Amino acid sequence: MLGGTRMDINILKEVFPVLLEGSLMTMELTIISVVLGSLIGMATALLKLSKNKLMASVAGFYTWLFRGTPMLLQLFVFYYGLPKVGIEFTPFQAALIGLSLNSGAYMAEIIRGGILSVDKGQFEACKSLGFTYLDTMKRVVLPQTFKIIIPSVGNEFITMLKDTSLVSAIAMEEVMRAAQLVSASTFRPMEVFFITACLYLLMTTIFTTVFSHYEKKLSVY
After folding, report:
1. Helix, strand, coil share of the chain (percent; to 5)
2. Which CATH number fits domain 25-219: 1.10.3720.10, 3.40.50.720, 3.40.50.11290, 1.10.760.10?
3. Residue (of 34, 56, 68) closest to 112 by Cα position
4. Is 3 in contact with 159 (CB distance < 8 Å)?
5. CA–CA gap between residue 41 and residue 64 (Å, rounded)
């Protein structure tokens, strides 16, 4: 019994640093992807709401395409498909592009819904005050939209954090890929994937707490 416990501790000492490093890469991918996705989503949402039918159609096609196809397929296209036409990406680049564009499509709908939830009277008031469309969005609408969409953005962030596990399919070494490699080398899949699950739970709990804090803080005002 003592020998088994000592072996488990040795496995933990061997496995945990590798999985922790993979977790840091998972968080890095998630944060960068959601930030870029938010910027893409904001631009796309504004285009979908614009009166320019061509730009609205392009933005609509983008969200339709990336929301309607599996993320894994999108990652395969960027990493395995594009080299066939002479465009090559490293696993990190392909993962970042795929995750950001996918997140951008969902964020576009979240932001668009938030903008539409702002009372139309405020748009009319800004227009009567001589505000341009961009000034109206920047000074009045988007600050209110941000407050409204915080819960949805938090959900998108948590979903993206878990979906980063898909990049292991293109040899990107985040926590899931690290778990697969360590499991194969140690022949201890139960322990390795249990630790991995605990790390995912820790990460999602941390970010859920952060978003809940900001949601409560903004609800005061």
Report:
1. 90, 0, 10
2. 1.10.3720.10
3. 56
4. no
5. 13
CB atoms within 10 A of CB 26: 26
> How far apart (Å, rounded) are the C-alpha atoms in residues 77 and 102?
13
The angle, 0 to 180 degrees and rounded to 10, between the axes of the packed helices 91-117 and 142-163 is 140
- For residue 110, give the nearest of 42, 48, 168 by alpha carbon: 42
Residue 202 corresponds to which tokens in the numbers above? 């820790």
Domain definitions of the chain by residue range? 25-219
Q: What is the pLDDT along the chain (221 residues), one digit of tens a residue?
A: 444 444 467 667 778 888 999 999 999 999 999 999 999 999 999 999 988 999 999 999 999 999 999 999 999 999 999 999 999 999 999 999 999 999 999 999 999 999 888 888 887 888 888 888 778 888 888 888 888 898 899 999 999 999 999 999 998 888 998 888 888 887 778 888 998 999 999 999 999 999 888 878 776 55
Query: Which three-class secondary structure state does DSSP give residue 31?
Result: helix
Q: Which amino acid is at 108?
A: A
